[in-house]
Design brief:
The protein is of the alpha+beta class. The chain has 2 domains: 62 residues, no CATH class; 72 residues, no CATH class. Helices cover 41% and strands 29% of the residues. The protein contains 6 helices and 5 strands. Strands 1-2-3-4-5 form a 5-stranded antiparallel beta sheet. Helix 1 runs antiparallel to helix 3. The two termini are 23 Å apart.
Length: 142
């Protein structure tokens, strides 16, 4: 068990919990840049979706239209970033829930290697409630 690795995972989980991510007000400023051509926002039952479209040239190819979709929850947390290149399907670039789950899983593995399961369960039970909701198995322990 590497204490440095555990500390890094805890720091990353803490950062994910306290930071909201890039906000639409920050993204909209990009529309003044030359390559940006469009932006749109719409409310949903879960929060807000903000899309920003720009053109991108790769070496000698003709410019491609790229749309970035940013999804926010009601608390203004960025929860999903997706990208669409040249009118193809959107692909996930970043997912807050997945980022949290991956770090919790790694933390659990590292702790379980050296500590009794009951102690690991007590440690993981101290996670914020929204994290426990992302990892249903931890709710059983908590």
């Amino acid at each position: 068990m590497s204490l440095e690795t555990i500390k890094t995972l805890v720091d990353e989980l803490t950062t994910l919990h306290v930071t909201r991510g890039v906000q639409p007000s920050e993204l909209v400023d990009n529309i003044f840049e030359e390559d940006y051509v469009e932006s749109s926002a719409r409310k949903t039952s879960a929060g807000l979706i903000f899309e920003l479209t720009f053109t991108e040239s790769v070496e000698e190819e003709s410019p491609s239209k790229v749309t970035m979709r940013y999804t926010y929850d009601h608390n203004r947390h960025l929860v999903l970033v997706e990208q669409n290149v040249a009118a193809k399907r959107f692909s996930v670039q970043w997912d807050r829930a997945r980022a949290v789950q991956e770090r919790i899983e790694k933390l659990e593995v590292l702790l379980s290697a050296k500590l009794p399961q009951a102690q690991v369960a007590r440690i993981l039970a101290t996670m914020p409630k929204d994290y426990l909701a992302l990892a249903p198995r931890l709710q059983l322990v908590a």
